[in-house]
Amino acid sequence: MKRITILSSLLLCGLIWSCNRAINNSTENYGMAVSEETASADINFEAAPESQTRLYSPVTMKGRSETSNNTVSPVQNKKIIRSGNISIASKDIKKTKLRLDNQIKEHDAYYEQESTSAGSTYTNYNLIVRIPVNQFDQFISGIENGEDKITEKSIQAKDVSLQYYDVESRLKSKRTYLEQYQKMVSSAKSVKELLEIEEQIRQLQEDIESSESLLRNLSGQISYSTLHISIFYSSTENPAYTYTYWSKIKDSLDTGWEFISNLFLGLISIWPIGIIIATAVWGWKKYKKRKSK
């Protein structure tokens, strides 16, 4: 009985010892495997292609940003509206106007507005001239180099580049949207959707027409400069024409004739009162005759 107990104790101890050894071996194997995988991962990271490490590197991003900055479109042309005012004291109003007419033909300009006022001692021309922008300075130089005296001059230049390119950009966007909405008409699924698309198209067309009108107006002002010209001839020493004694007689006769004409017209205008007076006189005379009898 004792032998059986001793044998079974020995077997149990051997079994426990073998189990502990197996556990230790598996732990060591697991540690070695983990270390090998870590080492292989380190090796793979170090041996990674240069293209992968360079893809998100700060140097590469900096290079890309510099490249994108270099592709920025060049500065757009300036859009300038030039205008001015000039006053001319003329020695001979007819010659001055004739020289100005020739100068306008020479520089491909035109009169936008022309008005004249004249009196016994003065003659004035108020003109608005549109001149090609590339001829504007030469046109003014031609006036300054003439025989007449410049009494006033002012030149203005207004930069409308921001407004011009903003309108132009918005116009392109609206045209793009209009094309998209026009394509959507054929794919409308209901009458309500079709009406909504057509309303958007109508609004876009109105906006496009308004933008085109504004762009044409700006382009016209940019292409042709505006110059306001005032020509005057007024002097006590050199009147517009010689006011002689015969001229005074003529003016007096004209004034007398005008008075007679106005008096005659005035008498005609009161003809009802004349008829009433004539009737009253005739009645009074008739009454006296009857009374005397």
From TrEMBL:
Keyword presence, DNA-binding: no
- As recorded in UniProt, coiled-coil segments are 178-221
Keywords, A to Z, come to: Coiled coil, Membrane, Signal, Transmembrane, Transmembrane helix
What's the name of the protein? DUF4349 domain-containing protein
- Specify the DUF4349 domain's residue ranges: 78-284
Is Coiled coil set as a keyword in this record? yes
Tell me which positions the record assigns to the signal sequence.
1-22
One Pfam family of this chain: DUF4349
Alphabetized InterPro entries for the sequence? DUF4349
The residue ranges crossing the membrane are 263-284
